[in-house]
């Protein structure tokens, strides 16, 4: 019997495993995942940004853990020779109407304890010569990193500490008992004193399998990107973001220099017809039917019908997608970009159609379920792992 079994070998599950072993090196820990490699889904398909925490509601878990996570990630990368770059980012007000929204964002950054600076149009041009805007906020602590490399480092550290990775192992059933949990998998039965659900895109299903009603469902949203062609990468020096649309829950098209030098532009946000669907043509009947039968989705769709329609048009029309890019960098043309990768965001949605905005953790008798951990979960993965480890260890310290 293991002390702790973790479902999900994404960055949050791996960080949690490492946090448990750091505090209790004698503990027995296993990380289970149905894929044959770590960071196979959300972690391995994100933009690689180390967020600052500027966007999030003051005192929320997201705001607190993003800031702490940014600092912890820098220390971790330096300690373990993982490539990263604290390059800073600009958030740009493209017109006069966006100035008040930008000022609100600046004030929120200050409330969240961040070093943020207002930039005039001229100062913006110094940092990003091709960016268009009347004013900007500069966030020096934002950066870029390869989260796959971070995850592989966590996995190596877990194994060095005596933990086990059991990959290619899909969970079929879960039985929570008085003194332990039993997980039936495609590779046999795994017994542990405590079960920790970090299954990301499938976290609601795992919670349900364990007998927990969550009042939410994961609805997948695919984010599609374009890449700047090599000869056009000079148009973006680091990170260029728009002022978020207050009437839409997703961030909007932005520019991200990746750690390997690529520059991505995106994402849009369209409903995914498969929880792990990275291509437009990907479709899974069960995943699709779950969304279609969920009242919360239709309430959300009604609320954001206009914005949702625009997102779908951008998905189908390169011309419209490039027009979104031109708001920030007017000189970009359709010829300058080519299709890039896509990611899928596991967005938890309540029955009333509201998005679960903060990280959401449900604690049971012998289990803990991380039921909502979208962006900035990768940035915040170290303190999220430590938070989960603290909660678990407070109730269930290892017995040796």
UniProtKB/TrEMBL annotation:
Its cofactor is FAD. Residues 3-390 form the FAD dependent oxidoreductase domain. SUPFAM superfamilies: FAD/NAD(P)-binding domain. GO terms for molecular function: (S)-2-hydroxyglutarate dehydrogenase activity. Keywords: FAD, Flavoprotein, Oxidoreductase. One of its GO terms (cellular component) is cytoplasm. Pfam families: DAO. The keyword Protein biosynthesis does not apply. Belongs to the L2HGDH family. PANTHER family: L-2-HYDROXYGLUTARATE DEHYDROGENASE, MITOCHONDRIAL. This is L-2-hydroxyglutarate oxidase.
């Amino acid at each position: 019997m293991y002390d702790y079994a973790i479902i999900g070998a994404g960055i949050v599950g791996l960080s949690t495993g490492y946090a448990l072993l750091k505090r209790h090196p004698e503990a027995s820990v296993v990380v289970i995942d149905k894929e044959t490699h770590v960071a196979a889904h959300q972690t391995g398909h994100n933009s690689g940004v180390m967020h600052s925490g500027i966007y999030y509601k003051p005192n929320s878990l997201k705001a607190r853990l993003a800031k702490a996570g940014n600092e912890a990630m820098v220390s971790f990368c330096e300690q373990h020779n993982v490539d990263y770059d604290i390059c800073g980012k600009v958030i740009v007000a493209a017109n006069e109407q966006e100035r008040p929204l930008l000022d609100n964002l600046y004030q929120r950054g200050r409330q969240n304890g961040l070093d943020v600076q207002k930039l005039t149009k001229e100062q913006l041009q110094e940092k990003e010569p091709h960016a268009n805007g009347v004013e900007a906020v500069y966030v020096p602590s934002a950066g870029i990193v390869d989260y796959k490399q971070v995850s592989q480092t966590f996995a190596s550290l877990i194994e060095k500490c005596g933990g086990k990775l059991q990959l290619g192992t899909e969970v079929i059933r879960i039985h929570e008992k008085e003194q332990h949990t039993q997980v039936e998998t495609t590779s046999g039965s795994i017994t542990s004193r405590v079960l920790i659900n970090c299954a990301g895109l499938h976290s609601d299903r795992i919670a349900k399998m364990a007998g927990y009603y969550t009042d939410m469902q994961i609805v997948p949203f695919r984010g599609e990107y374009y890449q700047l062609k090599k000869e056009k990468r000079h148009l973006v020096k680091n990170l260029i973001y728009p002022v978020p649309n207050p009437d839409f829950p997703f961030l909007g098209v932005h520019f991200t220099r990746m750690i390997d030098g690529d520059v991505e532009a995106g994402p849009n946000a369209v409903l995914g017809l498969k929880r792990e669907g990275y291509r437009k043509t990907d479709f899974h009947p069960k995943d699709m039917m779950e969304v279609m039968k969920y009242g919360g989705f239709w309430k959300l769709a009604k609320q954001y019908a206009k914005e949702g329609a625009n997102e779908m048009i951008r998905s189908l029309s390169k011309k419209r997608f490039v027009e979104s890019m031109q708001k920030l960098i007017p000189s970009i043309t359709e010829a300058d970009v080519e299709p890039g990768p896509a990611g899928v965001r596991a967005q938890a949605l309540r029955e009333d159609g509201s998005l679960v905005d903060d990280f959401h953790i449900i604690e049971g008798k012998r289990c803990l379920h991380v039921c909502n951990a979208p962006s900035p979960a990768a940035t915040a993965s170290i303190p999220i792992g430590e938070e989960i480890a603290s909660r678990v260890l407070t109730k269930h310290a290892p017995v040796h």
